[in-house]
């Protein structure tokens, strides 16, 4: 019995591993290609907010989104950053004004652990990074976003990586849009560079033509600010 | 010369700590340079910095003339100060930069050289090259003020998220509006 199980595992593991590898390659190729069927309205959106400048840029995008297509909206910000969620809340409230005392039902606001605070030691960073990654995975599994918007804060890396993992495992499909911050003129941010090089983002936007020339898979469509 | 028209300079460091800039603006040389350019008031938003400039003091510059100075740490109505200002001196954060440009105020951006990963310098220099603002370091602020000609600055036309959103819609297979 024990031997049978062992033999079965010996056969199953390589098969599973190759299936995963094939699936991984498929997801990589499939990313960046538009969906095959035209969309029915109402996509669950995950919107990753960052500090001051990042959030201002992101809210400019959210303002332009067709709200019937991109709904419900889940806003995520770092646990230490309450200002960003406040801004998003003010905006979502402004959308339902005039309809009486309605509560915001198409938007949710959540906070996420940061992998590392400024000045934190490297040893404790390992533990907090692990916590941040697990928290990100948990959020992605709960929300199952179909669209992810992010523009640079470090918190977007574990979130996008978790979403990509779900794609590989076939547990969900999300289109990841990365819009590099306007503050990046000549070099990508670390988050941007990772998502670009690892091909995790489906569409990658930059806000300066000189950056687009350096990173040809990126798109330039003007500035947000 | 009689009473001057009130012309306020607003200094902002956002949520950062940028004592090098606050100290510099508080120096007699920079105050003198501002007075020479016709400014009468100096408001300093000092953020997390610990260096407190001379609050409520009337600094003696150029004989009888006085430049009024005041400071505070944070305010929820930074935009009101910018609106009121005739000149803004700001740290290189993109939030402060674009808020000032959107309100159409002349802007000197002072780059904080003490920051570790100082990518913010890229944005300030690019916008300075396009003549939307002046870019300085704390140690060159005085000369920048003395030599500035605000008439040469060009208005910044705010960006627009519509093209990006249109591409996102197209990618997702939504029909164009």
TrEMBL record, chain A:
Q: Where are the transmembrane segments?
A: 6-29, 122-141, 161-179
State the InterPro entries in the record: Oligosacch_biosynth_Alg14 (IPR013969)
Gene3D superfamilies per record? Glycogen Phosphorylase B
The membrane topology term of the UniProt record is:
Single-pass membrane protein
The answer, when asked if Transmembrane helix is one of the entry's keywords, is: yes
Mostly located where? endoplasmic reticulum
Some GO term, biological process aspect, for this entry: which one? dolichol-linked oligosaccharide biosynthetic process
Q: Which domain of life is it from?
A: Eukaryota
Gene Ontology, cellular component aspect:
UDP-N-acetylglucosamine transferase complex
- Keywords assigned by UniProt, alphabetized: Endoplasmic reticulum, Membrane, Transmembrane, Transmembrane helix
Does this UniProt record's set of keywords contain Acetylation? no
Instruction: Spell out the family assignment given in the record's similarity comment.
Output: Belongs to the ALG14 family.
This protein's name? UDP-N-acetylglucosamine transferase subunit ALG14
Organism classification, top ranks? Eukaryota, Viridiplantae, Streptophyta, Embryophyta, Tracheophyta
From TrEMBL, chain B:
Q: Name one GO molecular function term.
A: hexosyltransferase activity
Against InterPro entries, the record matches this protein to: Glyco_trans_28_C, UDP-GlcNAc_transferase
Note the SUPFAM superfamilies from the entry: UDP-Glycosyltransferase/glycogen phosphorylase
Q: Name one GO cellular component term.
A: UDP-N-acetylglucosamine transferase complex
Q: Which Pfam families match?
A: Glyco_tran_28_C
Domain called Glycosyl transferase family 28 C-terminal: residue spans: 8-152
Give me any GO biological process, just one.
Answer: dolichol-linked oligosaccharide biosynthetic process
Query: PANTHER family this protein is in?
Result: UDP-N-ACETYLGLUCOSAMINE TRANSFERASE SUBUNIT ALG13
- Put simply, this protein is called Glycosyl transferase family 28 C-terminal domain-containing protein
Primary gene name: LOC100833191
């Amino acid at each position: 019995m024990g031997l049978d199980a062992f033999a079965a595992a010996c056969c199953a593991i390589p098969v599973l591993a190759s299936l995963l590898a094939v699936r991984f390659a498929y997801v990589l190729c499939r990313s960046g290609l538009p969906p095959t069927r035209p969309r029915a309205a109402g996509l669950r959106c995950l919107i990753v907010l960052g500090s001051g400048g990042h959030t201002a840029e992101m809210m400019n995008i959210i303002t332009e989104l067709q709200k019937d297509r991109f709904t419900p909206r889940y806003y995520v910000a770092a646990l230490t950053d309450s200002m960003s969620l406040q801004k998003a809340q003010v905006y979502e409230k402004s959308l339902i004004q005039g309809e009486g005392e309605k509560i915001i039902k198409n938007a949710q606001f959540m906070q996420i652990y940061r992998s590392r605070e400024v000045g934190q030691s490297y040893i404790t960073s390992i533990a907090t990074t692990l916590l941040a990654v697990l928290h990100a995975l948990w959020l992605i599994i709960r929300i199952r976003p179909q669209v992810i918007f992010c523009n640079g804060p470090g918190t977007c890396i574990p979130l996008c990586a978790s979403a990509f993992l779900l794609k590989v495992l076939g547990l969900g499909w999300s289109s990841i849009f990365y819009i590099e911050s306007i503050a990046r003129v000549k070099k990508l941010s670390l988050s941007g560079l990772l998502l670009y090089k690892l091909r995790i983002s489906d569409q990658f936007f930059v806000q300066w033509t000189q950056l687009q020339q350096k990173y040809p898979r990126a798109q330039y469509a003007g500035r947000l600010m | 010369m009689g009473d001057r028209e009130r012309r306020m300079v607003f200094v902002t460091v956002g949520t950062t700590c940028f004592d090098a800039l606050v100290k510099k603006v508080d120096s007699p040389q920079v105050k003198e340079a501002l007075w020479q350019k016709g400014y009468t008031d100096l408001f300093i938003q000092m953020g997390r910095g610990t260096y407190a400039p001379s609050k409520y003091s009337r600094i003696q510059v150029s004989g009888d003339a006085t430049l009024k100075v005041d400071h505070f740490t944070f305010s929820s109505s930074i935009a009101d100060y910018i609106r009121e200002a005739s000149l803004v001196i700001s740290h290189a954060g993109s939030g402060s930069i674009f808020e000032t440009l959107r309100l159409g105020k002349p802007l000197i951006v002072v780059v904080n050289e003490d920051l570790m990963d100082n990518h913010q310098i890229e944005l300030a220099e690019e916008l300075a090259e396009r003549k939307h603002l002046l870019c300085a370091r704390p140690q060159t602020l005085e000369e920048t003020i003395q030599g500035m000609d605000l008439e040469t600055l060009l208005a910044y036309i705010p960006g627009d998220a519509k093209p990006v959103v249109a591409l996102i819609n197209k990618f997702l297979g939504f029909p164009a509006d």
